[in-house]
Amino acid sequence: PFFQAYCVTEPGAGSDVAGIQTRAEKKGDEYLINGQKMWITNGGKANWSLLFLKFSLKIPSKHKIRETEIKFSFRCAEVLQLYTGPWSPASLEHQLYRYRLTRYPWTSPEELSSKVVLTLIYILNSQVAAGAVGLAKRALDEATKYALERKTFGKPIAEHQAVSFLLAEMALKVELARMSYQRAAWEVDMGHRNTFFASIAKAFAGDVANQVAADAVQIFGGNGFNTEYPVEKLMRDAKIYQVRGGKA
């Protein structure tokens, strides 16, 4: 399989791409890259890494932020960290000290600016929102199935008003979140800037994923806190959708 990593976050900068400090300095036919990147999902197994950096050039700062694809040597990956979340992916910290880049796909540093970088981030935010909706839908499905099977007082708990109302609210939130990310994706398909709708989708869908997952655990009761059932992991996984990709 082909894996790609997305290298934006640094110890002092994340979605604030204007604050990144990783720099590339031209030396003859090469670029020397110095800096530090962290929280790089798939960093340990990526075939290619999409690296965001600044060029040490005397041009307006808004034009300095660039992206480029480079193939990392594993010697650059010095710190391996694992975190709780979907599939528990490896998150690497790349220490880039005088990393030599001899082949690069651009013709001039002025080609891309921070506006382009932010556009890519908002496109990714739509994808993050879609993932959040998928998790919320799974939690809703699991809770619905359990509520139809689990019986108390001689009938399925789904027939108790408190549980049925909760399931209805969960379904409402899932469908609204789905429409929000689809609107953001549609704006991209139409060639429009989707900053506004992507921000709404990511913020709303991330909250919905956490709310619906927590409600699913509530419907499962004590079983919801048991690793033999899936909803406890969904609740743990949901948190990343309020964090991943930076603030909405």
Automatic annotation (TrEMBL):
Keywords: FAD, Fatty acid metabolism, Flavoprotein, Lipid metabolism, Oxidoreductase, Transit peptide. GO terms for biological process: medium-chain fatty acid catabolic process. GO terms for cellular component: mitochondrion. One of its GO terms (molecular function) is medium-chain fatty acyl-CoA dehydrogenase activity. Its cofactor is FAD. Residues 127-246 form the Acyl-CoA dehydrogenase/oxidase C-terminal domain. InterPro entries: Acyl-CoA_dehydrogenase, Acyl-CoA_DH_CS, Acyl-CoA_Oxase/DH_mid-dom, Acyl-CoA_Oxase/DH_mid-dom_sf, AcylCo_DH-like_C, AcylCo_DH/oxidase_C, AcylCoA_DH/oxidase_NM_dom_sf. Residues 5-54 form the Acyl-CoA oxidase/dehydrogenase middle domain. Pathway: Lipid metabolism; mitochondrial fatty acid beta-oxidation. It catalyses: octanoyl-CoA + oxidized [electron-transfer flavoprotein] + H(+) = (2E)-octenoyl-CoA + reduced [electron-transfer flavoprotein]; decanoyl-CoA + oxidized [electron-transfer flavoprotein] + H(+) = (2E)-decenoyl-CoA + reduced [electron-transfer flavoprotein]; tetradecanoyl-CoA + oxidized [electron-transfer flavoprotein] + H(+) = (2E)-tetradecenoyl-CoA + reduced [electron-transfer flavoprotein]; hexanoyl-CoA + oxidized [electron-transfer flavoprotein] + H(+) = (2E)-hexenoyl-CoA + reduced [electron-transfer flavoprotein]. Belongs to the acyl-CoA dehydrogenase family. This is Medium-chain specific acyl-CoA dehydrogenase, mitochondrial. It comes from Calypte anna (Anna's hummingbird). The lineage of its organism: Eukaryota, Metazoa, Chordata, Craniata, Vertebrata.
